[in-house]
Amino acid sequence: MSDLMPTLNGVDEIETKKFALPVDAENKATVFPLVSVAKPHMRAFHLCWIQFFSCFLSTFAAPPLLPIIRDNLNLTQNDIGNAGVGSVSGAIFARVLMGTACDLFGPRLASATLTLLTAPAVYLSAVADSAPGFFAMRFFTGFALATFVSTQYWMSSMFSPTVVGLANGQSAGWGNLGGGVAQLVMPLVYTAILKTGATNFVAWRIAFFIPALFQMSSAFAVMLLGQDLPDGNFHQLQKSGNMHKDNAKKVLYHGISNYRSWITALGYGFCFGVELAVNNIVAYYFYDRFNLNLNLSGIVAATFGMVNLFSRPIGGGLSDFMAKKYGMRGRLWSWWIVQTISGVLCIALGLIDTLAASIAVMIIFSLFVQAAEGLTFGVVPFVSRRSLGVVSGMTGAGGNVGAVLTQVIFFRGSQFTTERGITYMGVMIIACSLGIVSIYFPQWGGVFCSPKANFTEEDYYLKEWDAEEQKRGLHDVSMKFAGSCRNERSTKGKSVTKEAEMSAPDGV
After folding, report:
1. pTM of the model
2. Which stretches does UniProt call biased (Basic and acidic residues) (predicted)?
């Protein structure tokens, strides 16, 4: 049998003393024990979600305090809308750059550096004294959201294709939870500071020191305790000659020239982008429309983000489950259906005018839109092996582009009421989700199309390496990954593979 030929279940599991968990041919863990802190796989998981959580908390620390900040800085509705756009627009290019940085320098160094560089913006929130200052604070703090890309890259580097959807969903979901926790915690921190004798307009400023300290601490933890890959850190492996330092231009080219990267970016724009937009408006929406007080509107708004505790992991787990049953086509089917349903629920949320029903629909909507995010990154790791970081960065940036578009079109100024904007946003979710139908992998098929005959995983991933690179053996890591991806075939394709393996003579 060829060295690249997988075992009957599609993954070469290798039990070694080197790792606490069972691993595949790339030393990626083939299981995902959530409560474990085993080095290096599960330690990386816990470090990356905590860091991303801290960045999310900092970015969305302002919205739950907007009624107070608005009065202090004399902000207009346009000022608030512009600041909301700023909070998610800065990370658009930062996410693309983060993806490239992960491909070249590793997720540990790339993410910790960005987290430290953006922490001062959170501290400086305390001295904002005008609408432009408030905009600048939210804009530069929002760059930290690019750590999402390093989170997904890191998990895709640590976990096998059989569990990568769950690992990506769990890490991003728990990270996104920071947005919901901010809605809940920041009003409580503000109230606690008021009780020490501070005035309203001083208390909100002091409150920002809590997320800033947390963000800095998480960056140092990642830098000191994390590890890029199962076998070590990028710099260490490149220096020892065990890892090839890739060509930045080629990595970027293969990422942006793959049309699937653009479709995943579009789809993610109208699930994660929608979540970001809702995080910016949900607290003051309930505050203004249903006359709730600051703490109560914060609690209600927090439920939208808190659903991330299980919703995005459910999406990632569903992606892996569907892949076991129907291969890649199952991942695509479930992503399209779930995201379309989220659009329908978004329309309903904007049309309902009673408090109890709005809260109920908002929670169900949150479940589906966040599950769609997990389903997106059940597909992303398979788009490109060589340019994984670039594809992850483009997809993540698409989320921020979607947030900017929805914020500008529906929630900036007085063109639409907030509830009307929510309804129209639901229509846009349904329309843009149609792009998922166009994703086609010749070795696995698409939503409506079957795979191309006699086209293998090796054929697909080998296209990213030219003849000279193949002669030098630089494509070997992609071929190992291709062998681990046999499970993305449909049930029929898997059975054909098994029959071929059983009938093939030794040495073939």
Report:
1. 0.79
2. 486-501
